[in-house]
Amino acid sequence: PNVLLSTPHGIMGDVVQMHFSTVDYVIFVVLLVASAGIGLYYAFSGGRQRTTQEFLLADRSMRCLPVSLSLLATFQSAVAILGAPSEIYTHGTQYWFLGCSYFLGLLIPAHVFIPVFYRLRLSSAYQYLELRFSKSVRICGTVTFIFQMVIYMGVVLYAPALALNAVTGFDLWGAVLAMGLVCTLYTALGGLKAVIWTDVFQTIVMFAGQLAVIVVGTHQAGGIAEVWRKAQNGSRISGLDLNPDPLERHTFWTLGVGGIFLMLALYGVNQAQVQRYLSSRTEKEAIMSCYAVFPCQQIVLTLGCLMGLVMYARYGEESPLDKGYVKSNDQMVLYFVMDVLRDLPGLPGLFVACLFSGALSTISSAFNSLATVTMEDLIKPHVRPMTEARATLLSKMLGKVNNNLYIYAALSIFGMVGGPLLGLFCLGMFFPWANSTGALVGLVSGLVMAFWIGIGSFVSRMSASVPPVINATVIPDVGNMTTAVMTTLITPKPRPSGVQALYSLSYMWYSAHNSATVVVVGLLVSFLTGPWKEKELNPGTIYPVFGNLLFFLPQRYREKLCCVTPLEDNVSRLNATNQYPVSNTAFLLPL
């Protein structure tokens, strides 16, 4: 099918006919077939996915490189591929400073969360919540995670489907169905090992698609120096903005500091990522895979920013959106790609394959993680012991059910809940006084705060989009001459205060704000209802962060104030007693 796209260099309303060539379709189909083929390969090789440990955790046999690329691909979705260049084109390179948050955002998970999760030999991150608090906290955490992934999956599925619809006229819901079926096939048949190796393949496709557009676009713009010059002249090269105001959308502090909490929510406690850490052969390889994500994330961010600068070098201030060639910012990148690559058969197909790779990697990871938490946290603890064959079959069926149920629910749900989950895990790992009542009340408070701010911000923005009333002064007729003078009184936008200030909070602070709410409320409730002591807790569930930070205090004061037992001693004690198994698949690693 063909599509009519407007040319940015012609007269307003002038259009040219663009279409996918045969080569474009071949490249796109090869992506889908290869992804499904990897799933089939692992379905009929090795242990043939006959145990839950092989299906859900890849038999704990994965090496550093594939795990690191899979960690990168899991949240490098089509939304990011389309969104980052558009952000740079519109607002400049301030977004680039998000890369500053990657260092601590990956270092902390590597040395805090991974050791705790890996040494407890969990299958699901939410098994930790039962060990640390109670079964009710575990169930609440699991349901919250499912809700979070439902939302994200809907957005991730819709973005590339909309792109394919715009480029080829392919039916929007047909594209959604095609992606869902391919994801379901290789996830349900090949398990986590297939998901990880398809992530590796899809990551390569993502890099290739972005590089192709950047190289061709830079060449057509006259070289990288010319791209940079035009971006500077157009004030798109941003300096270091040290404005500490949390209401500012993007500054160094919102991106570099607020981004750390966003990274912790994604790479520290999200089941999709934790599952990859737990699939590693050793704890050291899990930590190294987290390290390896850092340069990869910087490359991904750089590619997105360069694409945005190349877009600006091509169009300048004459945005395709302003000219009416596209209807939204999300379509600008696709319009740019088709405009740049129109005479190069195969490359448009490569970029659309790049978009679909981002979507497939995220959706498959979501399917697998949802199947894991549903099996380990909602089914196994509440039914009679089942055989490995039956448990594995049920896990595969859950992967298929998630495709049909969660996607449609996602399209009607709006919100972000990663921050409260981060706060719940931090409350458990860093504060030995926190009890299960405090954890439950804290989680609920964090979720209420998240939805209050999220919905309030949305309503506030919608209200602000209504054109304001303009004050005008009209001078009546004077003699035979009629003069009408309209004087527009423009007043500076006042700084929001009170509740409006909360609604105006930069979205980069949402994770930090909501996780802090969980911790503060959880601790207050815990102290009011009777704080727990370290000796009363299951060994290995506390990371002695305060004991390490307050090393200069005498031992007796540190024992009163905080946890001082090293993590290794805690896990060794749990290994010796072996009295707190969390599931029939969990066991302890001798240190």
TrEMBL record:
<feature type="transmembrane region" description="Helical">
    <location>
        <begin position="172"/>
        <end position="192"/>
    </location>
</feature>
<protein>
    <recommendedName>
        <fullName>Sodium-dependent multivitamin transporter</fullName>
    </recommendedName>
</protein>
<feature type="transmembrane region" description="Helical">
    <location>
        <begin position="350"/>
        <end position="371"/>
    </location>
</feature>
<feature type="transmembrane region" description="Helical">
    <location>
        <begin position="139"/>
        <end position="160"/>
    </location>
</feature>
<feature type="transmembrane region" description="Helical">
    <location>
        <begin position="25"/>
        <end position="44"/>
    </location>
</feature>
<feature type="transmembrane region" description="Helical">
    <location>
        <begin position="290"/>
        <end position="313"/>
    </location>
</feature>
<dbReference type="InterPro" id="IPR038377">
    <property type="entry name" value="Na/Glc_symporter_sf"/>
</dbReference>
<feature type="transmembrane region" description="Helical">
    <location>
        <begin position="437"/>
        <end position="458"/>
    </location>
</feature>
<dbReference type="GO" id="GO:0090482">
    <property type="term" value="F:vitamin transmembrane transporter activity"/>
</dbReference>
<feature type="transmembrane region" description="Helical">
    <location>
        <begin position="470"/>
        <end position="490"/>
    </location>
</feature>
<dbReference type="Pfam" id="PF00474">
    <property type="entry name" value="SSF"/>
</dbReference>
<keyword id="KW-0915">Sodium</keyword>
<feature type="transmembrane region" description="Helical">
    <location>
        <begin position="64"/>
        <end position="83"/>
    </location>
</feature>
<dbReference type="GO" id="GO:0006814">
    <property type="term" value="P:sodium ion transport"/>
</dbReference>
<feature type="transmembrane region" description="Helical">
    <location>
        <begin position="510"/>
        <end position="528"/>
    </location>
</feature>
<dbReference type="InterPro" id="IPR001734">
    <property type="entry name" value="Na/solute_symporter"/>
</dbReference>
<feature type="transmembrane region" description="Helical">
    <location>
        <begin position="250"/>
        <end position="269"/>
    </location>
</feature>
<feature type="transmembrane region" description="Helical">
    <location>
        <begin position="405"/>
        <end position="431"/>
    </location>
</feature>
<keyword id="KW-0472">Membrane</keyword>
<feature type="transmembrane region" description="Helical">
    <location>
        <begin position="95"/>
        <end position="118"/>
    </location>
</feature>
<keyword id="KW-0406">Ion transport</keyword>
<keyword id="KW-0092">Biotin</keyword>
<keyword id="KW-0739">Sodium transport</keyword>
<keyword id="KW-0813">Transport</keyword>
<comment type="similarity">
    <text>Belongs to the sodium:solute symporter (SSF) (TC 2.A.21) family.</text>
</comment>
<keyword id="KW-0769">Symport</keyword>
<comment type="function">
    <text>Sodium-dependent multivitamin transporter that mediates the electrogenic transport of pantothenate, biotin, lipoate and iodide. Functions as a Na(+)-coupled substrate symporter where the stoichiometry of Na(+):substrate is 2:1, creating an electrochemical Na(+) gradient used as driving force for substrate uptake. Required for biotin and pantothenate uptake in the intestine across the brush border membrane. Plays a role in the maintenance of intestinal mucosa integrity, by providing the gut mucosa with biotin.</text>
</comment>
<dbReference type="InterPro" id="IPR051163">
    <property type="entry name" value="Sodium:Solute_Symporter_SSF"/>
</dbReference>
<comment type="subunit">
    <text>Interacts with PDZD11.</text>
</comment>
<feature type="transmembrane region" description="Helical">
    <location>
        <begin position="204"/>
        <end position="225"/>
    </location>
</feature>
<dbReference type="InterPro" id="IPR018212">
    <property type="entry name" value="Na/solute_symporter_CS"/>
</dbReference>
<keyword id="KW-0812">Transmembrane</keyword>
<dbReference type="GO" id="GO:0016324">
    <property type="term" value="C:apical plasma membrane"/>
</dbReference>
<dbReference type="GO" id="GO:0015075">
    <property type="term" value="F:monoatomic ion transmembrane transporter activity"/>
</dbReference>
<keyword id="KW-1133">Transmembrane helix</keyword>
<dbReference type="GO" id="GO:0098660">
    <property type="term" value="P:inorganic ion transmembrane transport"/>
</dbReference>
<keyword id="KW-1003">Cell membrane</keyword>
<keyword id="KW-0325">Glycoprotein</keyword>
<dbReference type="GO" id="GO:0015293">
    <property type="term" value="F:symporter activity"/>
</dbReference>
<dbReference type="GO" id="GO:0015887">
    <property type="term" value="P:pantothenate transmembrane transport"/>
</dbReference>
